[in-house]
Structures are given as C-alpha cells and as structure tokens.
Design a protein that fits this description.
The complex is a heterodimer of chains A (about 200) and B (about 110). Chain A is built from six helices and no strands. The longest helix of chain A is centred in the middle third of the chain and has 31 residues. Chain A has one domain: Up-down Bundle (Four Helix Bundle (Hemerythrin (Met), subunit A)), CATH 1.20.120.80. Chain A is mainly alpha-helical and about 200 residues long. Chain B is mostly helical and about 110 residues long. Chain B folds into two domains: about 60 residues; about 30 residues. Chain B contains four helices and no strands. In chain B, helix 1 runs antiparallel to helix 2. Classes of the chains: A mainly alpha (about 200), B mainly alpha (about 110). Chains A and B meet through helix 1, helix 2 and helix 6 of A and helix 1, helix 2 and helix 3 of B.
Chain lengths: ~200, ~110
C-alpha cells in the first residue's frame, strides 16, 4: 500500500497553496538571505577599501549575459503558460530555449573567467576580484543547478505529464520561480559589479 | 477551465511586454553608465533601475502581484531579515574596538601636575 503525498496538485484549504509552492518560496527566502549576506559583504569590503577598481570587467559581455537571462526568463514563463494552455509542443520548445540560453550564459561566463585567468587576475589578486568571483561563481552554480532540473524535465521527468499533467505543470511553475529568482539576482549583480 | 485559459492568454501578452521592457531598461542602465556620472549619482540611478527591473520580474513573472497571504507573510519576514543584513555594514562604522579612547589623557595628566 503506497501513501500519496497530499496537496501536490490541489491547494491546501488553509493556506490556499500547494505544498510544493510554499516549499519553493521558503527555499527562495533562504536564498535571499544567502545572497543578501554576500551583497552586505560587498558593501563592507567596498566601504573599507581605499580605492575601488573601475573598468576591469567587460561591460558588453555582462550586458549580453543580462539580455540572455532576461530572454530565458521570458521563455521559462512561456513554457509554463504553454502547459496551462495545453500546448505540449510549445512547452517543449520554450523549455529547450530556456536551457540553451542558460548554456549560452555559462559559455559567456567561461570566456570571461578564462580572460581573467590568462591575465593572472585570480581571486587572490584583489578584494574586488575576490568578491566578483565569489558572487558570480555562486550565481553560476545556481544557473548550473537550474539547467540540471530543466534537463530532467526535458528528459526522463517529462513522462510525468502523461500520468499527472497537473503535477507536472506545477513542477514547471516551481522551476520557473527558481529561474526568475536567479535572473533577479543577476539584475542586481550586473550594475553592482560591472558598472559601479 | 475556459476562463482560466482566457486569463492565461491575456497574461502571455504581459510576459512579452515585460520582457521587452526589461531589455529596454538594461540598455538604459548601460547608456547611463557611458555618461560617467559622479559615483553617488551613478549608484543611485543604477540601483533605481535595477529595483524597477527586479519588481517587474517578481510581480509579473513570479506572479507576486496576486499571490496568497502565506507567501507575502514569508516574504515580509525575509525582507526584514534582508534589511537587517544590509544594515550590518553600518554597525562596522559604529565599531570602536581597537580605537584609542583616551587620546587626550597624557595631556590632561600633564596639566594636573
């Protein structure tokens, strides 16, 4: 006899939410604190530094990555909306688009990191580079984590749609919430690190 | 179900429009940076635009404009925690550990004799 996990498709009467949705929001709340602590560290380091470097990063590459992540947020929300509209083909297309855009983001980041390393600009080189690599590295790990989840839903995880389309649609919504959060963090990282 | 699909179709248009607005705001952020404003002004402008972009992502893409009160409750607690963390750098300025307190003491002692 197997026991079903309750409230994965229908909403709990007391919270008005599925358990998964409340769970992902609590997880995102903890993520806000994680990145918040690092942004706070950035402020402390910057205020304490006698001088702060400008123009060390490639603004155009950073801007390209911002466009890529914004585009991926649009395709992600469209992947969920397509499921709600019952269009499986478009859902697959948009999810694949999101996956490819996130891969493009990481490829750009690789070239950026490689150019720094070629010039000997490692995290130990300066306070600025230390906080730059920490913040963008942690963000990059989040991108990679999102890609793993998307690859699962493009691959073996897609089978759930036939068995339980409501649960699958909710899972894509939670993935989207995570993905938009990762985009949101980058929206602040870009000006703070590349422009100011 | 039918009305649900109709409302989704309406929001799809909003998703594309918000996406376009985010692209424009990103271009504006970079354009303003090319003007080379004074640092305090540059920080203010960049953070205002980033906050506007972040609000659009949160309210439309993450559906926070019409979410349940439990989500808002969790997020209010998070915002309080986030603001406390952001205020920590100010405490470092108020930290006088290691700063000599009685710098003028030897002079006062001298005057006493």
């Amino acid at each position: 006899m197997s026991m079903e996990i309750p409230y994965i498709v229908e909403e709990r009467p007391d919270t008005g939410l599925t358990n998964g949705k409340l769970g992902i929001w609590l997880f995102l709340a903890s993520e806000v604190m994680l990145f918040g602590a690092l942004f706070s560290t950035y402020i402390i380091l910057r205020m304490g530094a006698p001088e702060w470097p400008h123009g060390e990063l490639n603004v155009w590459l950073g801007m390209a990555n911002t466009f890529i992540l914004i585009g991926s947020s649009v395709t992600m929300v469209m992947a969920w909306a397509s499921l709600k509209l019952g269009d499986w083909g478009k859902h697959r297309l948009y999810l694949l688009g999101t996956f490819l855009l996130s891969a493009a983001f990481l490829v750009n980041k690789y070239f950026e990191y490689a150019s720094h390393w070629a010039k000997g600009e490692l995290p130990s080189h300066s306070t600025f580079l230390a906080i730059y690599f920490t913040l963008t590295g942690l963000h990059g790990i989040h991108i990679l984590g999102g890609m793993v989840v998307m690859a699962y839903f493009l691959g073996p995880g897609a089978k759930l749609y036939k068995k339980n389309p409501g649960q699958f649609t909710n899972r894509i919504e939670y993935t989207g919430l995570y993905w938009h959060f990762v985009d949101l963090v980058w929206i602040f990282l870009f000006p703070v690190l590349y422009l100011l | 179900m039918h009305s649900d699909q109709e409302s989704i179709k309406k929001t799809v248009r909003a998703y594309w429009m918000i996406g376009a607005a985010l692209f424009v705001f990103t271009a504006v952020t970079v354009a303003v940076n090319q003007v080379h404003l004074a640092v305090p002004m540059a920080i203010t402008v960049a953070l205002i635009i980033a906050t506007m972009k972040g609000s659009m992502v949160a309210s439309v893409f993450m559906h926070l404009s019409h979410e349940r009160k439990w989500i808002y409750g969790a997020l209010i607690l998070t915002v309080i925690g986030f603001l406390l963390v952001m205020a920590l750098p100010m405490l470092t300025m108020a930290d006088h550990i290691g700063t000599p307190i009685h710098v003028a003491a030897p002079a006062a002692e001298h005057a006493g004799h």
